[in-house]
Each structure stands twice: as structure tokens, then as C-alpha cells.
């Protein structure tokens, strides 16, 4: 039997963007239903186990005040609960080098839940964990209701609201609601992008990764059972163009920028000639962060070239890829001293709320993307694509900013890395508006970007900004009695909406002096 519930705003997907949308909408007085397929809110930060990829200016500017509150909350949690060796303002708990802010997913979850808790208490926010969307009902150009399955109880629920947000990781709701969208890579004849291919390839999406938490006990023996598909993945050679330098299970991989062979090593204590240490790349537990004697074992999150899943799009198989990588590291990985394997590596499921060390959900780098009123292309943000122009394209309808290189991982269609410089950019409102549906909004990686520009719009602070802008837009529209598309079409409404964003601490433009990444 299906049960019915309604609110002012329905958000399907409790990832980074979905949580930001819920927080903004609740702060502006809306009643919100937020569903999440796993039992952890937070997406990239938490259930997917991906430390935040951030730009070089993040400590001073270049994100929303809400995103900064999350970062500050994570640091405050460490200061309140952990015996730290120092009280540096810019605390990087894991001392990873992917960014200046690597933390445990459990701590990010605690900080995020603390931000949402007052709204749950007040009755404005109804969070439904372990709820998966199964169907959407439309009436004309509106989403009338969404059916979700409570995977714990096996019961279905029908949810409705005047405005509906797709904040899922793959844009599931777009497909269910019949929202016009695109997948994979577009043809150059459509986008004009220098790095687009000659034909559209809908299946040409970036590889997913099922991230893994891994600790290191140098004197221990923690070898896991040999995965059933280990032999296949040990010998697997990616079929990519340009070619991958050899087997996926190797310390040599393609340099994302120029595709030349790049060497890596596991540990920072090993000779530097062996390449950068991958253990410290996304390290989330660093012994030196804490007082001496507190932490005996360091831990890292494994999101490396060696566990990108490049065969098809079955997430279940992506789990095997990561477990096979762990087994290879434990038993066969060449060491600089001439030996093989690091049996002291062990899965740290306790850091991710799982038993096997894998994250609760896979990390999808690419989603279905709406056919939007405006689509951001490489011409708008790519440094080389813009030629002599300085800076990214300015958008009069900006709802936020972001900065990252155009960074695409190898694809299921056989493309190798694409990693090129881009200018710090704005997020245009037009990219958040579907061309037809009037009450559906995207709040994740499903906005009006291309396969290529998704590569710089997919990171944590940008997804948060997108979600926050959408949550504020919902409150603004319901308060004014206007549909989302009218806000962009009417200059006075747009100006009022942008003033609302600015008052909330959403930066709408970059300082003139920022350089390309």
C-alpha cells in the first residue's frame, strides 16, 4: 500500500547538492522532504568516501557561506573531540595532498547532520533514509508526484510538492519524469567544443569508482580473501585511446595532463624516485595531526587510477575492482625494496560505516544532464578554448561560482583522460532550468553542462553551491508565486533573487585577479 506525504519542496537524493538545497530551503522557511537511498546523507563527502577536491583560494573565498560553515563545522568537531597536536586554523585532519581539507567521512556526516538538526526538530525537514525513487507521475509539464521505496520495510510512498528537485547521483528522476536530458558525450557540431568528438556517444560516460578505506599496520597480516574476479582484474589492460601504458594493476598509469607514463609508490617512506605516494594522496587519518600516542594507524581513501571501473556501468562489479586492487596491494604489488605486497594493509570499514571497507555507494563522476535553457560549454570556461580572452564567460544570471580544471577520467567509450586548464567560472541560472518541465530543478551533476564542462562543475563546492542556489530559488519562487523560469526571464525578479543569494553569502563573481587552473 502506498502512503502519501506532501511538503513545499521535495528533494530526491541526499547527496552534497541535495543537502545544500534542503538546508537553504529550510532556512528560508519551507517545509522539505529529503530522501536518500543510503543511510548516510552527504554523498561525495560521506557515503561515497571522496575527500573534497577544492581550488587554491578556498580558505579565503570562492565558495558559499553555507559550504564554509560545513568546513568550519568539520574542523570544530575535530577540535572538540580529538586530541590535536596543534590548533591551526586551516586544519587538514588527514594531511592528504589532493586538497587542504581531507577528513573522515563520519566526521563530515556529523557536521552535516548538526547543520540540519534544528530544522528536523522544528518540523521543517523530513529526512527519509534508505528511500529509493521508483517512479514519477507527471501532469502536462509538471511533476505531480514521486514514488519512493522504503528499502527497509518494502513499502512504497507517494511524495508531492509544488517544486521537485532531482539531486540523485545519476539524474534518475530526470528519466522517470520524462525530462529531456543528455548522457555521455556530445558531438562537436552541436557544442563547438575543441575537445568534443565528431559524433555524439550517449554511452561514453566517465568511469565510476567504488572508493575504499584502507589502513596500514606495517607489522600486521590482514590479507583479505581473494576476490572471485581477481585474476581478470590483475591482468586487465584498459582499451583506451590514446593507449594506457600497461596493466591497470601497476604502479605506472597515464599522467592525466599529457598521458605520458607516470610512476607512483604506495608510501611516503619509500624512495622518492618511485613516484608520488598514493597512500597520502587522499589520506584521512594522519598520525601527526594528533598528540603522540593517540593514533597508531593511519588511513586513506582509495580513489586512484587503479580502481576506476572501465568495463561497463554495473556498480556491483565496481566493488570487485576495488577489492581486487586491495588484494593486489596486499599480495603482489611490487615494492621498491624488490619484494611484493603489503600484507599490513587492511580495509577500514569502520571509517565508512561498512564491514568490507568499501564506501556505502559508488562515486559517479557523471550524470544524466538536463537539456537546459542555457548549456555551459568548453567555449565558456576552457582557457585554451577562449583563446586571448581573459577569464571565463561572465553570466548576468550568475547564481554562484566555482573553480577546477576540466578533469575527465577515462570513459566507458574508450577515451583516456582529458585534463585541461579552465578559468574560475560562474554558475548560470539558465543551466539549472529545464527547457520544458516547469517545476523540476536539478541540484547535482545533472545541470546544463556538457560531457566536457561537467569535468569542472562536478566537485564538492560547486555541487553544494548548485544545491544551495536551487533551495533558495524554490523559496523565492513560492514566496513570489512565480515559476523558476520566470526568475531568469524577468530582470527585476532575477535581481531580487540574486540579492537574496548575496545576502546568504553566495558569491556571484570572482575577483578580477584570479588565474586559470
Give a summary of the structure in a few sentences:
By secondary structure, this protein is α/β, with parallel strands linked by helices. The protein contains twelve helices and 23 strands.
Q: What does this entry look like structurally?
A:
This protein folds into 2 domains: 3-88 and 116-185 and 365-503, FAD/NAD(P)-binding domain (3-Layer(bba) Sandwich); 208-351, no CATH class. It has a 5-stranded parallel sheet. Strands 1-7-6-5 form a 4-stranded mixed sheet. It is globular, with a radius of gyration of 22 Å. It is α/β, with parallel strands linked by helices and 517 residues long. The chain has helices at 16-27, 65-81, 105-121, 172-176, 188-191, 230-235, 315-331, 378-381, 454-457, 460-480, 484-489, 491-503, and strands spanning 3-6, 9-12, 32-36, 125-129, 131-139, 142-150, 155-160, 163-166, 181-182, 208-209, 212-216, 252-254, 261-263, 283-285, 299-302, 308-309, 345-347, 369-370, 398-402, 406-408, 418-420, 425-428, 440-442. Helix content is 24%, strand content 18%. It has 12 helices and 23 strands.
